[in-house]
Design a protein that fits this description.
Layout lengths: L3 E5 L3 E7 L2 E9 L3 H14 L5 E8 L5 E5 L9 H10 L5 E8 L6 H20 L1 E14 L1 H13 L4 E6 L3 E7 L4 H12 L4 E11 L1
Antiparallel strand pairs: 1-7, 2-3, 3-6, 4-5, 4-6, 7-9, 7-10, 8-9
């Protein structure tokens, strides 16, 4: 599994004009290929009068699903450069649709490649990206007396507490990079005088 990947910070649309043609790049997060396809369909409905609605998306932390469409532009001049831009920026779980309203001036193959790839790159810059890092889920079980202190110490050390459950003891759920697990065990033992227990669970991706 990849240790980290990038995805967009928020969905949105960025517009640019090249030789009187309007290029609107709509970006959105997509957890599955179906979500990506639904987004493409929604943009196509919104811009049914456009000359072209080309798309590209990358799904999976390891980019296992990659699709692109030129939607009537000359082969390889739209969808592929859009996809290449997403991959070059290490984008994952992201779908891009570039809508073109033709302005009367032909751009040529090279011009189209630059326009479509550039539209995605500019949209990524405008909307922003975030890094998602792979974490190991861990549960920390501690007595009620020490729970408040442990929560404060965890946050101070940069370990975000994902969940807290209260019962006979207090169970805190956090995410840890694999490389930090053993150091965390030692740290926790020092903070709680060896009274806390750590159990490791599955893996997730979260904000870096």
């Amino acid at each position: 599994m990849q240790d980290e990947y990038r995805t967009i910070a928020r969905a949105g649309v960025h517009e640019t004009e090249i030789n009187r043609s309007r290029f609107l790049c709509a970006l959105a997060p997509a957890a599955t290929e179906r979500e990506a396809q639904d987004f493409v369909a929604a943009v196509r409905r919104e811009h049914a009068d456009a000359t072209h609605n080309c798309f590209a998306y990358v799904i999976g932390a390891d980019a296992s699903v990659q699709r692109a469409s030129d939607d009537g532009e000359p082969g390889g001049t739209a969808g592929v450069p859009m996809l290449q831009m997403l991959l070059r920026r290490d984008m994952r779980y992201t779908v891009a649709v570039v809508t073109r309203y033709f302005g009367g001036v032909k751009l040529g193959a090279g011009g189209l490649v630059r326009a479509y790839g550039g539209a995605v790159g500019e949209a990524l810059d405008a909307l922003g990206t975030v890094v998602r890092r792979r974490f190991r889920l861990a549960t920390v079980t501690v007595d009620h007396q020490r729970a408040g202190k442990v929560q404060n110490e965890l946050r101070a050390a940069g370990h975000g507490v994902r969940d807290v459950r209260y019962g006979e003891a207090v169970v805190l759920e956090i995410g840890l990079p694999d490389a930090e697990v053993e150091a965390f065990r030692s740290w926790l033992a020092d903070v709680t005088a060896g009274t806390a227990r750590v159990e490791l669970g599955g893996e997730i991706y979260g904000a870096a």
